[in-house]
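Here is one chain, start to finish.
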Amino acid sequence: MRLLVIDDEAKIADFLRRGLESAGYAVDVATDGQRAIDFLYGTNYDLVILDLMLPDIDGLDLLKKIRNRKVSPPVLILSARDAVDDRVKGLEFGADDYLVKPFAFVELLARARALLRRGQPMPERLQVGELSLDCIRRKVVRAGETIELAPKEFSILEYLMRNRGRPLSRTMIVEHVWDMEYDGLTNIVDVYIRHLRAKIDERFPVKMIHTVRGVGYMLDAPERAGERGEMAPDTAEQTTEA
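Its structure:
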C-alpha cells in the first residue's frame, strides 16, 4: 500500500516516513502544497496524512482539492491545531480522522490501519492452503506454526498471497514493496525470496513459493501449483525477466 505524508516539518515528515516504511508501507513525502498536488495527480494513494499548516497553501484548501478528485483516498489530518473548532472544521471539510500533535506513533499507525481497512475492500486475513496471513495483526501461520517475518518479508508475502496463482515479476515486486524503479541489476528481490523460502517453505515437505521461468515468482497452494507446467524447480533462484 502507498501512503502520502504532507508535512512541512522535515523532522516529523522523516520520522513518519521511516516509521511507516518499517510497518511495511511505501511512502512519499511532500513538504508543501504544490508538491503534494503533483504527487496526488500522478499517483493513486491508499491514504493521505495531512498537516494543515503548510507554507504555500492552507491544508483545508488542499483537502478540498483531494475531495474533488474522482478517486479520493482516506485522509488523516495530523495538526498542531487542537481547538475543537479546528477538529470539527477538518472533519466537515472531508477528513476521515483528526490527530493532534504531539502524537504517539503507535496511535497514528493504529488510526492509519483503521482507515486503510475502511477504504480497502480487500480481506483482512489471507489464506492459501495451510498458510494464513493476518493483515491487521501482521501474523503469519503455516500448519499451526507461527512464522516471524521482517516488515519487507511480510509485505512481499502479502503481495504474493493477494495475487495467488499469478506470476509476479521482480519489477512488480520492487515497485509495490520498495516504491522504486527496478534497474535489472540488483538482486534484492531474489535475496528476500530466499529469506522467505527459508521461513515459509524450508521446514515443510511441500513448497508454496515458486520460480516462474522468464517472469519472476508466484505463490500458490500445492494442489494448484503442481498443475502448472511452466514453473521451474523451487530451488532455482536466478531467472531472466521477459
